[in-house]
Every structure is written in C-alpha cells, then in structure tokens.
Amino acid sequence: MLTIPAKEFAQRRSFLLTHIEQDAVVIIKAANSCERNEGVEYPFRQESNFYYLSGFCEPEALLVLIPNRVEGQFILFCRNRDPALEIWTGLRAGQEGAIKNYGADQAFSITELDNIMPQLLNGRSTIYLLMATQQGLQQQLVGWLNVIREKMRQHAKPPQTFKALEPIIHEMRLYKSSNELAIMQYAMDISAKAHIRAMQECKAGLYEYTLDAALEYEFRKGGARLVAYNSIVASGANACILHYQENNAQLKSGDLVMIDAGCEIACYASDISRTFPVNGKFSAEQKAIYEIVLAANLAAIEEVMPGKRYQDSHNKAVEVITKGLVELGILKGNVKTLIANQAYSEFYMHSTGHWLGLDVHDVGAYLISGKSRLLAEGMVLTIEPGIYIAPDNMQVDECWRGIGVRIEDNVVVTATGHKVMTDNTPKMLADIERLMA
Ligand code: GLY
Ligand code: MN
Ligand code: MN
User: Fold this and answer.
1) Which of 198, 247, 298, 337 is packed most tightly, with the most Cβ within 10 A?
2) Which ligand 1 atom is at minimum distance from the Cα of 408?
3) What one-character-per-residue DSSP string does 200-265 give?
4) Closest ligand 1 atom, CA of 406?
5) Radius of gyration over alpha carbons of the chain, in Å?
6) Ligand 1 binding pocket includes 229 (Cβ within 6 Å)
7) Which residue's alpha carbon is nearest to atom 3 within ligand 1?
8) CA nearest 295: which of 407, 214, 205?
9) For residue 229, which atom of ligand 1 is closest to its CA?
10) Cα–Cα distance between 90 and 223 in angstroms, integer?
11) Cα gap 200→231, rounded to integer Å
C-alpha cells in the first residue's frame, strides 16, 4: 500500500520549523475518536494537519514542534501501551513507537500533558495553533499558561502571542509532492473502477444503494478503508439535490443517475462525479444537457495551467453553460447580460471546483490580495460543472424538468499545463453508452 515515506514527514516538519519565529511553539491536537452509540465508534480518521506533519494515526495525542530545542524539536504526546486494552481495540504505538516509527525526538504519555506542557511553553514567545478546529485545546492551553503565570516571580515567562497556524500549513499542503500525487492517483484509479462497476451493474428496478454497494466493493477491494465523503448516488430528480444522501430510491428506466463518489487512501481524497442513463441510452433532452456540461467540463479543464487564475475555469464553465442554456431556450436573452446578472445560477449554483488533497475540500487560499490566485505546478483541483433543473421549475418546458447532470474530474497543474488524473473514468457520451450496452 502506498504511503508517504517517513523522510517526507520529517521534511514537512523541518520546513515548518524554519518558517516560524525561532522562539515559537506549534501545537496540534489529534482528532477525537467519536462514539456512534453505546460501545461503538465511528472509524477513526486523523486530523489532516496532524497527519500531514506526523503520519501518526491515533486519537488522544498532541504534536508539539519547538524550533532549536536542544532535547529535540518534535515532541509527541500519545497513549500508553496497554496490553489488556490492546487485546480489545488494537495495537498502540506507545512512546517507544512514536520515536522509532514516527520520528519523534521525544515522546511522553498523554497523561503527562498537564505536567509537561507548562515546561515546554515557558520562555517561548509565540504559540501557533489551528484556530478553526481545536476548541478543546484552547481551554487546556489556558490552564498551562496559568501554571506558568503563577511562577512568574521565579522568572517564568508565559508566551504572549497566539498565531494562526493555518496560513503557513495550508500553503504547504496546497502544493502536492510526487509521493502525494502517486497516492492520490491510486485513490482516483480505484474510484474510476468503482464508477465503471456502477455503470456496468446499473439497471432499472435496482436501487441507488445497489450502485452505492458496487462503489463500496471496489473501494474496499482497492484497499480504501474509508470514503473521502459519503457517496452520492442520485437518480432522476434526486440529482438536483447537490449533496443528496439518502441513496434509497428505485432506479427507473428513462432517468439519469448522477454518482459523486471517491475513496480515501492514506488520508488523501479522490472526488469524481459521473452521470449516466439508468437504461444505458441518453434521451434527446438528457443528451442535450449532458453535452453542455461536458463541453463546460472540457473547456474549464483547458483553463488549468500555470499562470492562469483559479477563477478562470469557473468563468469559462459559466460561459459555456449559459450559452448552451440559451441555445436550448431554457435561458432567454443576451448571453453577456445573463452572465453579468448570474441568470445561470438558477441551474448552476455551485462553483466549478475546489482544491483537493487530505481534505476533499482541501485547504489553501483561493484569493491572494483580493484577486483569484494564480495556478502553479503541484496544485490539485476539481473541475465539476453541472446543470440542475428543478422538478418543480414551472419556468422551463416540462421536458427539461428533473434533469441533473454533474461531471467532475480531478486535475493537477503541471509545469507546462495540466494532467487530468481521472481520465480513466469514462465521460464521453459514446463511451458511456458503449460501456453500458
Ligand atoms: N463531493 C463533494 C464535492 O464535489 O464537492
Ligand atoms: Mn464531488
Ligand atoms: Mn468536488
């Protein structure tokens, strides 16, 4: 199974350690394990930034980075080994494993947190924290700072400044290394097989969950333990609900089915959408809408290259979709005016993509100084235009109502242009019809 090598985790930590004040401290708390019901837990998924810097996949842990600390710069607090508990819930790294397998310079028991953290923070000026996701930690921190404050007469010096870690670590995460790209490609290849299986197994009378099971089968067979997000299997007008979750309707001949699904490998996401006819043949109306979305997808992908802006692909998709809807008579008026008035947003109400990485909606600024940012090598984004015509939209001819189409690819910016990482998931109309025949 593909993983990020220990050396790369170490490089990430040392990059971060050299890009913060040398008297600062970085603190990141692991994700909590989460109870589903009595004695049953949701599968554990590490906090993405914690994982990015350590590869450590246990709850009840705290990662601390301290530049220029003689005893070591990477400190990991983690659970103790516990043979009796490990029989029930699995092996733990323990402090020895944290050092040996995860490159920690020092490891302490998580039970020692309140004793040791005040010592580690004393004399440091700035604390870097994730502002968004770690509320529990902020309360603990107040306690540790109070311990230091109580010792100020003995020359203890509590940190004075809190800074958001997000701008630095998000910027690091935005640019994917070759190891990250290889893992993501693998996740996308499994997801491609899953979409193909769903197309092949699709027939009227089955249920949306039958196709969900086909996806899940390929995900798990490929080694994915988790989905990157809950699979969306939306037939007929359900496809007009952007993040439809029920997946329980019966598949009807004459309807389309829109699947938005991707697995997660080594915490990295894939995110693919395809739309196809339940009976394997697009009707004239479905074909007309599908071809507009496909044209928007292809044109938007052409905008992905170094030097272009993130927003350029969205603008292009909006242009193609608006023109297409005017040609079909679904929108009426002048294309430029309709774009300026965002008339398309009744049928295309989301943006054309997002960054992709450890999080399906990955981190990284979209605007720099108020302007859409320039694309650069190593960024991975989705291109996912769609058209959704609500079943109760009385403004449009009945023949269009309830049609929902999204076509989503994952694209990496290369030195000279882009590579569509999901091009082994069929999207050309003839290819889909051939596959389903
Ligand atoms: N699967 C969620 C999205 O496409 O953004
Ligand atoms: Mn998606
Ligand atoms: Mn997406």
Assistant:
1) 198
2) 4
3) HH--TTSBHHHHHHHHHHHHHHTT--EESS--EEEEGGGGGSTT-----PBP-TT-EEEEEE-EEE
4) 4
5) 25
6) yes
7) 271
8) 407
9) 1
10) 19
11) 17
- CA separation for the pair 334, 325 (Å, rounded): 11
Q: What are phi and psi of 178, to 5 degrees?
A: -65, -35
Nearest to 167 by CA among 12, 20, 364: 364
Q: Is the CB of 44 under 6 A from ligand 1?
A: no
Q: Which residues contact 394 (CB under 8 A, 6 or more apart)?
A: none
273 alpha carbon – ligand 1 mean position (Å)? 8
CA of 270 to the centre of ligand 3 (A): 9
Distance 350 CA to ligand 1 centre (A): 10
Instruction: Find all residues with CB under 8 Å of 180, minimum gap 6, and list them.
Output: 4, 268, 357
Closest to 174 measured CA to CA, from 67, 305, 49: 49
Please state the length of the chain.
437
359 lines ligand 1 (CB under 6 A): no
Mutate to test the pocket of ligand 1, among 215, 227, 229 (most ligand atoms within 8 A of CB): 229
| Cα of 370 from ligand 2 centre, angstroms | 26
Ligand 1 atom with minimal separation from the 350 CA:
5
Q: Is the pTM of this model over 0.90?
A: yes
Domains of the chain: 6-173 (3.40.350.10), 175-436 (3.90.230.10)
Give the contacts of 306 (CB within 8 A, at least 6 positions apart).
Answer: 374, 375, 376, 377, 413, 415, 416, 417
Query: What distance in angstroms lies between residue 112's CA and the mean position of ligand 2's atoms?
Result: 42
Q: How far is the CA of 76 from the centre of ligand 2 (A)?
A: 35
Taking only the tens of pLDDT, the chain with its 437 residues reads 799 999 999 999 999 999 999 999 999 999 999 999 998 999 999 999 999 999 999 999 999 999 999 999 999 999 999 999 999 999 999 999 999 999 999 999 999 999 999 999 999 999 999 998 787 898 999 999 999 999 999 999 999 999 999 999 999 999 999 999 999 999 999 999 999 999 999 999 999 999 999 999 999 999 999 999 999 999 999 999 999 999 999 999 999 999 999 999 999 999 999 999 999 999 999 999 999 999 999 999 999 999 999 999 999 999 999 999 999 999 999 999 999 999 999 999 999 999 999 999 999 999 999 999 999 999 999 999 999 999 999 999 999 999 999 999 999 999 999 999 999 999 999 999 999 99
d(CA 101, CA 97): 5
